Amino acid sequence: MIINCYFSSVSASESTQHLPVPPVAPDTSHRRLRVAQGILLLFHVTGFLGLAFSKDPSFYLQFVPLNLLLTAVLLFAFQRERNFAFLSFCLTTMAVGFFVEVVGIQTGRIFGQYSYGETLGLKWLGVPLIIGLNWVMLTYMGGVLARYLPLPGFLRAVVGALLLVGMDVCLEPVAVRYDFWTWAYDLIPLQNFKGWFAVALILQVFFNRSSFEKHNPLVPFVYLLQLLFFFGLGLFIR
Q1: Domain range holding 88?
Q2: Helix (H) or strand (E) holding 114
């Protein structure tokens, strides 16, 4: 009986070796990325259609700060290493970006003579609070994208700064049309782009020297989506 039990157990174990292997679970991170891209695409397409074709774009403009917050939350959710260096980068960039804008509107010496409207929400010292977050997002995206190129650190910072200026070129006509901000004499000065490049370059150098993982799979999608969003709107309002 003992021998029979032994052979029975051996046969059972051998038979289990031939059972089908359970299917591998789908790539959760890839699925999360697709969901995030879908959400962002939905928000941006809705906003684009509303602003480009609606007779009353004010309804859609009230969601601009919310859209920016949502984009930031989803974007930084895919930053895997959120250590002290990353937190320090975010807070420092936010503060620098915000107070540069404060100095800018009060003196006109950085970007030119301009003032903020009501579209971007609550303001302090004449600057919408969400502007600091916008500087963080743009600096972060420019820095991450520039790292795809095999360049030394400073040249990479230059590329990142140029990516920020490129976004601003597409953004400016839309911003003026929808009361993000307005320029003196209704003229966007060349000084604005020079100022953007100078500030962006400093922040890109800071980004490169900060010690955290600088890879985010959502960054290329968000940058391209926003670039197309503002470029497309700019074509419709001209």
Answers
A1: 84-238
A2: strand 114-116
